[in-house]
Write a structure and sequence with these properties.
- By secondary structure, the protein is α/β, with parallel strands linked by helices.
- The protein has a single domain, classed as Alkaline Phosphatase, subunit A (3-Layer(aba) Sandwich).
- Helices cover about 30% and strands about 15% of the residues.
- It contains 14 helices and 15 strands.
- The chain has an 8-stranded mixed beta sheet with strand order 5-4-6-1-7-9-2-10. Strands 12-13-14-15 form a 4-stranded antiparallel beta sheet, with helices on one face.
- α6 (about 145-155) packs parallel to α7 (about 195-225) and α11 crosses α12 (about 395-405).
- The longest helix is centred in the middle third of the chain and has 30 residues, at about 195-225.
- The protein is globular.
- Residues about 1-20 and about 475-484 have low confidence and may be disordered.
- Bound molecules: calcium ion (CA).
- The site of calcium ion has 6 residues, from loops.
């Protein structure tokens, strides 16, 4: 039997050497997963904004592979976070409305990496339940608490770690950050927004919160570097989903809603300044982290069977893409949106979508209803647009589209990236519409998604409406009208 002391000394020497010279072959990397909140993917310096100041994220992007076709499966805070951490699409796990929860036995990245020897922590926005499915150490509720983050990543060099840094910025209300940096009169208003003084005022305040996020990201990266772990830490940045400005993405399946800015840095394993156009989704992240940690994602029991009884991930491991050994993961990405249960919703307006590299197919499951929830449909921005629309017929049509849409939409993203010309039902896209419609049907069947029927029971997937611990129901909520 080996004496214990020399072994421990040898291990300590190997770890300190790795901090200086890069990760030794076979070492488990640390993981830093940075998740912004309601950041439209093009609103960073490095993704094309002419105004927004994001020097730390821009630097990270230059040191990373840019994942240019990364998509969230839901344009809403809570379901997308459950999807990131579980590797499961929202309806399968049960976490599909906002303020939701997975089915109880479901396991997450925190379990899977702990089984591989990791300690796991989360700082900032939680928005996932129940706790048994997400056993992270809560680092701090405050994303500005850089000391707590530095303490977590630096305190124990013998054990690899996963740190999820989930900011609250730039989620509305837009009140934080260096407001003086952005003059509402001088910023460039993106073409998908209606340009008026109210839009500009809100946009400038939102940009200040993006810069606040950038400061937090800079502090996280500096803490990793100061602790000597930069070379053995895999960093992944996600912009999350689009912002709450009308047409900026939130609660829609247009690319502004579901497409993410995503940057992956892992010195020695991922080529800095590279990019990939491979279609991928947030559900693919957990299997990829498991593979990067030396585990086999194909052997993981997620605890949550799909409609066919399969207990493996919905997500796929994209490590080969990161390492430049492959350029394709998926032919189609999927997304869903559930309005029932969002604070302020009035009628169900469920949406499903499928997208390939060129075309998007969207199905609105209750088009006879009015899509009317919160920030997109109410508040000073949309009210100012409605006022201007009284003398602007084109704007009036754009505003009307926020409330009423046809049953099906098809867009050619190559010629119409902002999805302004619905081609559904036209001969030019008949074949692709039929193909993506079939793909969507197959995905919904695998997920156990019954469409409107699933939407109508969404409130049962919210902890605030779940039965009491003794099985008795909570006080019944007022029934909402179904499709007319
Ligand atoms: Ca969000």
């Amino acid at each position: 039997m080996l004496p214990r002391l020399p072994l421990a000394l040898g291990l300590a020497f190997a770890l300190s050497a790795s901090a200086v010279h890069g990760a030794p072959a076979g070492a488990k990397p640390n993981f830093l997963l940075i998740i912004a909140d309601d950041l439209t993917w093009t609103d960073l310096g490095c993704t094309g904004s002419p105004d927004v100041k994001t020097p730390h994220i821009d630097r990270l992007s230059r040191e990373s592979m840019s994942l240019r076709a990364m998509f969230t499966p839901a344009p809403t805070c809570s379901p997308l976070r459950h999807a990131v951490y579980t590797g499961l699409f929202p309806i399968r796990s049960g976490a599909y409305p906002n303020h939701t929860m997975v089915d109880k036995p479901t396991r997450s990245i925190f379990h899977h990496l702990q089984a591989l020897g990791y300690r796991t922590g989360l700082q900032g926005k939680t928005h996932v339940q129940p706790a048994a499915s997400f056993p992270y150490e809560f680092i701090s509720a405050d994303p500005d608490d850089a000391a707590a983050f530095a303490q977590f990543v630096g305190r124990d060099r013998q054990q690899p770690w996963l740190a999820v840094f989930a900011s609250h910025d730039p989620h509305g209300p837009w009140t934080r950050g260096p407001q003086d940096l952005y003059d509402p009169a001088k910023i460039t208003v993106p073409s998908y927004l209606h340009d008026n003084a109210v839009t500009r005022k809100n946009l400038a305040a939102y940009y200040a919160e993006i810069t606040q996020l950038d400061t937090q990201v800079g502090a996280c990266l500096a803490a990793v570097e100061a602790s000597g772990q930069r070379d053995n830490t895999f960093v992944l940045f996600l912009s999350e989903q689009g912002s709450g400005m009308p047409y900026a993405g939130k609660w829609s399946l247009y690319d502004n809603g579901i497409r993410a800015a995503a940057f992956a840095r892992w010195p020695g394993r991922i080529k800095p300044g590279s990019s990939s156009d491979a279609l991928m989704q947030y559900v693919d992240i957990t299997p990829t982290f498991i593979a990067a940690a030396g585990g086999d994602p194909a052997k993981i029991d997620t605890g949550c069977p799909d409609a066919r009884g399969d207990r493996g991930f919905d997500g796929r491991n994209f490590l080969a893409i990161l390492e430049g050994k492959a350029d394709r993961l998926r032919d189609v990405v999927f997304a869903q949106h559930t309005t029932v249960g969002i604070n302020g919703y009035k009628e169900p307006y469920p949406i499903r979508g499928a997208r390939d590299t060129r075309y998007k197919y969207i199905r609105n499951l209750a088009p006879q209803n009015t899509y009317d929830i919160g920030g997109i449909h109410h508040g000073d921005v949309i009210e100012s647009w409605q006022a201007d629309a009284k003398t602007d017929p084109a704007l009036a049509a754009r505003v009307e589209w926020l409330f009423h849409r046809p049953a099906e939409e098809v867009y050619d993203l190559q010629t119409d990236p902002l999805e302004t010309k619905n081609l559904a039902g036209t001969p030019a896209v008949a074949a692709v519409q039929a193909k993506l419609s079939r793909e969507l049907d197959a995905w919904m069947a695998q997920q156990g998604d019954k469409g409107l029927a699933t939407e109508l029971v969404a409130e049962s997937r919210q902890p605030r409406n779940a039965p009491n611990a003794d099985g008795t129901p909570k006080a019944p909520r007022k029934a909402k009208p179904a499709a007319k």
